[in-house]
Amino acid sequence: MYEEAVKVAEAHYRSLENGDYEELLKTLTKELQESAGIRGSSSYFWWKTGRRFV
Q1: Residue 20 CB contacts under 8 Å (≥ 6 apart), including other chains
Q2: What's the confidence (pLDDT) of residue 3?
Q3: Do residues 25 and 8 touch, judged by C-beta distance below 8 A?
């Protein structure tokens, strides 16, 4: 279980580094994926601000 979480986290940050929005979505839960395009949602915020810090 722990190893899978590490793989997802690494994929999440790698997608931010590479600017790959579609890959980022794959690392999110279904609920977060559905709200990703909504300005102000957590997913939207992570995408917009997270790329500045990686």
Answers
A1: 14
A2: 96
A3: no
User: What pLDDT shows up at residue 51?
Assistant: 77
pLDDT < 70 positions in the chain? 54
Placement of tokens 């279980």 in the chain: 1
**What pTM was estimated for this model as a whole?**
0.78
CB atoms within 10 A of CB 21: 13
The whole-angstrom separation of Cα 54 and Cα 2 is 23
Residue written as tokens 């940050």? Answer: 13
Q: Which of 8, 48, 45 is nearest to 28 (CA)?
A: 8
